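LOG
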Amino acid sequence: MSGYLDIIFLLVLVFVIFSKLKSVLGTGAEDAKVIIIPKEQFEKLYKEPKKSLVAEGGESVDLSKLSPLDRELTRIPNFNKALFIKGAQKAFEMILSAFSKGDAGTLSKLVNGELLKKFEKVINERKEQGMTAETDLIGFVETEIESVKFVDDENVNLVVKFVSEQVNLLKNAEGEVVEGDENYVQKISDVWTFEKSLNPRVNSWLLCSTKKC
């Protein structure tokens, strides 16, 4: 008899629990509110800059108060301007060092294929002439994002201006300085363009072009 009562009690308990879950979760698809957004509207929402965003600390930022450039930057998924500048400076230092040392392996991880070929051509020409390059990056005077360009709504290019102080030397096979002065610090302005996919899962930027100011 006690076993029979235990079964009844268990059934009542299961019914009560199920009722509670039903009131919280709903009964299924008939209770769910599904909103279907046309593809054109979804693409418009994705492509157009938002009117506001939530900054670190939970405060809402009015995008209308941002500069045109900063508003465009908000279209890049998971983009943090300060972190990008810091990363760009690190990449600048690594690429400069790898190029002067002829380290194509490191360059292949930091620049795109087309630019890598140009770098390798210069590196090979130096080797054929028995020349070696030395670059000492003293520090950055200025680093700023100059412009942003979205390519086919799939990729983004950022143009960054670096103003840095460097000591650059070119030596022959005997180790004699044939270009530059080890006691002379140059102030050099470079404009580099970095590219990245807009896919939020892709975080790495690659250098795709360089030029002197």
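LOG (cont.) second protein
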Amino acid sequence: MHPIRHWELFSAKELELANLYICILDTKINSVLQFCHSTLGGGHHGSTRTARKVLDCSLYWPTIFIGVYQFVSTYDKCQKDGVAMNRRHEMPQQPILFCEVFDVWGIDFMGPFPVSNGYSYILLAVDYVSKWAEAIATKTNDAKVVVDFLKSNNFCRFGVPKELISDQGSHFCNRAMTSLLHKYGVVHRVATAYHPQTNSQVEVFNREIKKTLQKMTNPSRKD
């Protein structure tokens, strides 16, 4: 039996449309890596492409990138086949940056929109690895809203991230935010006006949410 079938609770198309990933058990990780790296379809590629294959199968686990790197770098056949390569043929060595699920979040405000039930803004946060998005409607776009959102919604549900990316707005760059991020050891990366694409994940979701809202609201735009 095809090994991946054990964890396919939904069809690949359904998982893709729903943006769902199945978190597999530790006991299944090795067989998944064997399939995605060592079989004929795996191709014995490097850690990045192997990890991509795992994610394309809608599978993941919290330390997927570290696990894939360790598996590929210690796989005997790949190491033996590559033993003849000398330093003249090697690519320049660069430190490997491990970024796991919920390690890096982008955050941004949308609005102001026409007031509905007292709300006129949407605060959106997107995880850069899983593309998981969290959004809430807010009445204002001030620092207190952001701090409360991070503490009560993100930090307690997904854990404290390593980095937070935002624009230069005063609701993100202020004393309260600096104090919060310093307390939890979170690095704050600010997208400049000359390079707003730094926070690209949030910008993409902003556009998608705006399209969805336009399709769902009445022409009066009051609901």
